[in-house]
Amino acid sequence: MACATGNIRYFKSLQNQLLQARTVEKMARLLGIEHRTLDYLAERPQYNEFDVPKKNGGFRHIEDPDNELKNVLRLFNDYLQAVYYFRKSDAAYGFVRVPDNDTAPRNILSNAEKHRNRPWMLNVDFLDFFHQIKQIEIYELFVCPPFNFGEELAVLLSKLTTYKGRLPMGSPTSPVLSNFATLLLDQDLLGFATKKDLVYSRFADDLTFSANSPLSVEHLTGIRQICAFYGLKLNENKINFFLPHQTKIVTGLIVTNRVDIPHTYLEDLRKEIDKLRTVLEINYRTGRQASEWVQRFHQQIEGAIEFIRQIETSKSPDYQQIRQYYAESQQMAENYQPTSWLDFGYHKFI
Fold first, then answer.
1. What is the three-class DSSP state of 242?
2. Residue 53 φ then ψ, to 5°
3. pTM summary value
4. Measuring CA to CA, which residue among 152, 145, 161 is closest to residue 74?
5. Can you tell me the distance from the alpha carbon of 279 to that of 274, in angstroms, rounded to the nearest whole number?
6. pLDDT tens digits, residue range 168-207?
7. C-alpha pair distances (Å), 111 with each of 130, 245, 307, 311, 334
8. Who's near 348: CB < 8 A, 6+ residues apart?
């Protein structure tokens, strides 16, 4: 069974297992299901579609695979991530899994750190990134190196990992497959950046270019042309030039000569902690057990607090204050434990 972490030797093992599963039967065995079940999931993928509000307005359309398909895709993702690790682009920092002992992890922090001390910056996003990557591209990915799968298996895997003819927003395998699909794009954008004396990095659909000299419309035109060559359109509403005096944001982090958490992130997190406290108070007052939703809410908040620690270290005032605020909030909620009628002493009058 594949898993999310491991050392470099384990990653090589996962890679080899996937590349050696060269028939549908072997692939089904690797993914722990029957051949006919794998065929069925590929031919009739079941997704739950819904919209979630974006922080800055509008909605994001989510396509969430049902549990059986999701479990298979999660396992397949572990193997794909291992293969991608040994071929990863120098520019890719989003959704790149690395071994436990890797000295240069790829994540939101290391992505932002690449652009420290750069007074000029340009951020661009792709428009509906996953949906621009079509099933035929995923098929071609699987028939080419390093996979070199035969047509039958490549067709099946391309159907298994796509929905409505493109990568779905919500599938476990969409991020890593998008990284595979943009390997050549990253290579060309890195070449462009080198010629123009720019620093380039990509976190999923978020592309950042920074420099020690002004960035211009000519730079944007060159970037747009390279992306168009690979069939990718930019989101024209999310093109941002930053001048030396402006606050620079890279994947939600403030970048100067260091990387910091925005104050709005801390404010929003405090509001979420307050919401959790209110829910817990209601549960304690009514004697209800915490639901699975409340437990996930706990995990999300603790994850957000841990994110602050990773960005600013455990000694930062931001981390210490929000951690204390969270602990005090939990304690205050617990003060609303349900009261027993015996606590009022009514039994004395019976």
1. strand
2. -70, 140
3. 0.85
4. 161
5. 9
6. 999 999 999 999 999 999 999 999 999 999 999 999 999 9
7. 20, 21, 14, 12, 40
8. none
